[in-house]
# Entry
Amino acid sequence: MRRALVLGLLALTLASWSAGSIRAADSYGSYGSSGSSASKSKAGTFKGKAVKLGDGKVWSWVTLDVAGAPTAIGITLTETALTNLPKEPLPGLMFTEHILALPAKASATPFTHAVLNWNPHGHIPAGVYTVPHFDFHFYMCPPKVRAAITGTGDDLAKCSKAPPAGVLPASFITQLPATIEPRMGNHWVDSKAPEFNGKPFTYTWVYGSYDGKVTFYEPMITRDFLLTKPNLTADILPLGAFPAPGWYPTKFRIAYDGKAKTYTAALEGFVKR
# Structure
């Protein structure tokens, strides 16, 4: 009798445990397919294809919130990308060019593609930007339009055409035709930036235009400044009018990640315009 009682209790325990396990599995399964708000989240960071730079790599990325709105877009370099960089620019130019396709999710932003330019000798104005530096370009025009910019012949007029008055911040200036570059267009710099007021150039903000429209956003950063392993965020002086309705950044960030051993230039603080 004692043996029968023990066996009966054992069977009851196993049955109870098994039923509990099945209920837990059913609960987990229904949670995973319940259509909850968490499962519908569009949040995440999405990376573009990495390309070789120096002894390392560089890639673009975009971060979206749960509703799919952009919160940041950027270009990240591995620490090793700063070694064995090209010593000379492309023939006839002042820079090398690394075209970075944006991930598909970046369509939530106004940006169509990114280009990282390395200027081994810098560029004009002499004594200001004539130091080795990177141009982190975020373009709003189609890649084919950018690639066709020559800054010569009939295209010179398109490069020279300024956006309407009030679009660019009042302190931003240009110096035609010296500020026109092939594959870029015209450049506008802030006359109130530190490098124009007695301090050395470390990083700055640039707007670009072509055919009367603002076509790119550009943090410009020296190699030496990146090597200091910075971590800073700065405001972007806003445009007075935007090329099209959409989400536009209000800040830019320059940061070193000691764990990942990467450098990043990012546009952040997106606001719907």
